[in-house]
């Protein structure tokens, strides 16, 4: 699905994992709880949205690049 590629799910997943690990390690929190799930989910969604917005605003510049 082309629209899913705009979100770069692998990059968003890495950001979510980094947020999860950072929260868990910084606060010595349990490996999984509702707060961590919300933080990781929010991080994933914000990252995915940011990737799509970036692609939208870069569409003209990207059209000029030869690949």
Strand percentage: under 5%
Oligomer: single chain
Order of helices and strands: HHHH
End-to-end Cα distance, whole Å, is 21 Å
Low-confidence stretches: none
Number of strands: 0
Count of discrete structural domains: 1
Explain what this protein looks like in three dimensions:
- The two termini are 21 Å apart.
- Helix content is 79%, strand content 0%.
- α2 packs antiparallel against α3.
- The mean pLDDT is 91.
- The chain has one domain.
- The protein has helices spanning 2-5, 9-27, 34-57, 59-64.
- With 67 residues, the protein is mainly alpha-helical.
- The longest helix has 24 residues, at 34-57.
- The radius of gyration is 15 Å and the shape is elongated.
Features:
67 residues; mainly alpha; 4 helices; 0% strand
Task: Give a concise summary.
This protein is an all-alpha fold and 67 residues long. It is built from four helices and no strands. It is elongated and about 50 Å long.
């Amino acid at each position: 699905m082309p629209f899913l590629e705009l979100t770069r799910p692998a990059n968003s997943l890495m950001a979510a994992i980094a947020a999860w690990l950072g929260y868990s390690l910084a606060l010595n929190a349990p490996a999984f709880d509702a707060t961590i799930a919300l933080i990781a989910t929010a991080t994933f969604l914000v990252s995915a949205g940011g990737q799509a917005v970036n692609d939208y605003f870069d569409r003209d510049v990207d059209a000029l690049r030869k690949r």
